[in-house]
From TrEMBL:
TM stretches of this protein: none
Polar residues composition-biased segments: 595-605
GO annotation terms (biological process): carbohydrate metabolic process; glucuronoside catabolic process
Domain Glycosyl hydrolases family 2 sugar binding: 14-177
Stretches for region Disordered: 584-618
Top-rank taxon: Bacteria
Keywords linked to the UniProt accession: Glycosidase, Hydrolase
Classification via SUPFAM superfamilies: (Trans)glycosidases, beta-Galactosidase/glucuronidase domain, Galactose-binding domain-like
Alphabetical list of PANTHER family matching this protein: BETA-GLUCURONIDASE (PTHR10066:SF67)
Organism in which the protein naturally occurs: Arthrobacter sp. RP40.7
Family per record: Belongs to the glycosyl hydrolase 2 family.
Protein name as annotated: Beta-glucuronidase
Domain Glycoside hydrolase family 2 immunoglobulin-like beta-sandwich: 181-270
Classification lineage: Bacteria, Bacillati, Actinomycetota, Actinomycetes, Micrococcales
Length: 618
């Protein structure tokens, strides 16, 4: 789905701002048929949960309603008129006056509706959007609904971040010509000094198509006709990590020489490849340094905020970080566009977090029920996951910053049924985009000895917390187990291995002269221990610290106003670990740090059995 843009033939109206807001009133059905009877207003974009002082609103499970009046520009006569919602978490219904025009399940991908037949240029209409925050076994991410003894509906879920809901991204009204471009796909390659761009243009009707490529100065460097083909860019400027260069592909529908529709898609020329145990960008080995992040700030929750966007990227640059993972859902498109322009590498992750009932078993990893079964995560869950993959890849396929798809975070890949669940999804992802490698983030309970899906993927991303959840405060023992664990993955699968999560909760201002958990010094020592191990492992291609900044979670006695593993506080103040990471990462430029690397594959029986650490820590 193409992002709305203002072009020669298209116009765009942003509908962000303050909307009327109300919780679902079960005593008054169909609230959209009238003006909402509420004094509350909510900003779009933002999550609604932390805006109000009323606990009932924060804890609400079910539908909420947003409403505003919209005027269609009078100059849009003869044009198609569309409504586009960048996201509605987790389900959305859209009404134009009294008519349902769109419905969508999935909280992190866009959807739109052609409302031409329901509105008039120059006229007004009542726009009402219902948003439902419920998660079930048939949603991605999954969850469940329980009812308390006093009748309150409560949401349960298996991911460790707060279930913020609402219209967290922008809403748009835009116009297109009757005959218009519906999709653009661009895949790039390199032949010597020549860039190659395979393109495909889809349109609402069969029409003559022309494409032109403009460089960063606006100069036309190549052109072609036809809805698909290959463009050659001589003396190409490559998109590189830390040195972004973008071209514009201008697609035009023509009638004679008249332009019926025009759309510009930005793209970068670069290649991504996994070769042996190396991850290559433009044929050169790349080493990931950076973080798992969250769309999470005070008050606005997951609401997109351009000020935080700019500041977070400035902090990444200050640290020397070159990449991040969109844990654990696709981020706003503005984030990827910014990464495209500034040369930050992105591992783009789906919202498939929580497909693991073993987390309910704590450190044992043995849940009360099997994760994959007809009664738990089943064919309905898999179908929702597949649809989410389609929507994420369709939205983000042309971003040069996106170098890899992560199709799940910490699934129960060690359990029976995992392969049957994931193998069709891997096949689907490869069909949808054969140009990018695939990965998933492996949970602590999934080891190189019992994981059932690792061979299906190109890069093995490992989440490990030796020294925090196991061997807490004993970094010497943690170091032995971590090294044995990582060497086991490299030796068993012969693929690139990276650490997609490692971190320790830290209260800012907590200090100690000893390795005392929760202190700033312990977080720094914890990271140093991990880095010593990483530098000794051949085939190791990257380190993503968990987490960039502290973030809000659900209620829990092991969380102190949220997850405190950030190297920055929630309001982006650095902890001591941030300075230590800056010293390590600054100047690396994507190269693997030099250390006491060894090619030895020898491990002791204890080192090779990380699950033994979990047993010992029960």
């Amino acid at each position: 789905m193409l992002k709305p843009r203002s072009t020669l033939t298209r116009e765009l109206v942003n509908l962000d701002g303050l909307w009327r807001f109300a919780l679902e009133d079960t005593d008054v059905p169909e609230p959209w048929i009238r003006t909402l009877d509420s004094k509350l207003e909510a900003p779009v974009p933002s999550s609604y949960n932390d805006l109000f002082a009323d606990q009932k609103i924060r804890d609400h499970v079910g539908w909420v309603w947003y409403q505003r009046t919209v005027r269609v520009p009078r100059g849009w006569t003869g044009e198609r008129v569309f409504l586009r919602l960048d996201a509605a978490t987790h389900e959305g219904k859209v009404y134009v006056d009294d008519v349902l025009v769109a419905q969508h399940v999935g909280g992190y991908t866009p959807f739109e509706a052609d409302i031409t037949e329901h509105v008039a240029p120059g006229g007004e209409f009542r726009l009402t959007v219902g948003v439902n925050n419920e998660l079930t076994t048939a949603t991605i991410p999954p969850g469940g609904i329980t009812v308390s003894q006093d009748g309150r509906r409560q949401q349960t879920y298996l991911h460790d971040f707060y279930n913020y809901a609402g219209l967290a991204r922008s809403v748009w009204l835009y116009s297109k010509p009757d005959r218009h471009i519906t999709d653009i796909t661009i895949a790039t390659g390199i032949l010597g000094r020549t860039g190659v761009a395979d393109y495909s243009i889809a349109a609402s009707q069969e029409t003559r198509v022309r494409v032109r490529v403009l460089d960063a100065t606006g100069r036309e460097v190549t052109s072609a006709e036809g809805s698909q083909g290959t463009l050659s860019i001589e003396d190409v400027s490559l998109w590189r990590p830390g040195a972004a260069y973008l071209y514009d592909l201008v697609a035009e529908l023509l009638e004679g020489e008249d332009v019926i529709d025009s759309y510009t898609e930005h793209f970068g020329v670069r290649t991504v490849e996994v070769r042996g145990t190396q991850f290559l960008i433009n044929g050169e080995p790349f080493y990931f340094t950076g973080f798992g992040k969250h769309e999470d700030t005070a008050v606005r929750g997951k609401g997109h905020d351009n000020a935080y966007l700019v500041h977070d990227f400035q902090l990444l640059e200050w640290l020397g970080a070159n990449s991040f993972r969109t844990s654990h859902y696709p981020y706003a498109e503005e984030v990827l566009e910014f990464a495209d322009r500034h040369g930050i590498v992105v591992v783009n992750e789906t919202a498939a977090v929580g497909l693991n009932l073993g987390v309910q078993g704590g450190l044992t990893g043995v849940g009360p029920k099997p994760t994959f079964s007809p009664e738990t995560f089943n064919h309905e869950t898999q179908a929702a996951h597949a649809q989410h993959l389609r929507e994420v890849i369709a939205r983000d396929k042309n971003h040069p910053s996106v170098v890899m798809w992560s199709i799940a975070n910490e699934p129960a890949s060690n359990e029976d049924g995992a392969r049957e669940f994931f193998e069709p999804l891997v096949q689907l992802a490869r069909k949808l985009d054969p140009t990018r490698p695939l990965t998933y983030a492996a949970v602590m309970f999934a080891t190189f000895q019992n994981d059932k899906i690792a061979d299906l993927f190109d890069v093995l991303s490992i989440n490990r917390y030796y020294g925090w959840y196991v061997f807490t405060g004993d970094l010497a023992t943690a170091e032995q187990y971590l090294e044995g664990d990582l060497r086991g993955w490299v030796k068993t699968f012969g693929k690139p291995v990276m650490m997609s999560e490692y971190g320790a909760d830290t209260m800012p201002g907590q200090h100690s002269i000893w390795d005392l958990p929760w202190s700033e010094e312990y977080q720094q020592s914890f990271l140093d221990m991990n880095h010593r191990v990483f530098d000794r492992i051949e085939g190791f291609v990257g380190e993503h610290v968990w987490n960039f900044a502290d973030f809000q979670t659900s209620n829990g006695i092991h969380r102190v106003d949220g997850n405190r593993k950030g190297v920055f506080t929630r309001d982006r103040k650095p902890k001591a670990a941030a300075h230590a990471l800056r010293a390590r990462w600054t100047g690396l430029s994507g190269a693997k740090p030099s250390g006491n690397a060894t090619t030895s594959d020898q491990t002791t029986e204890t080192e090779a059995r990380p699950e033994a650490a979990l047993e010992g820590a029960k």
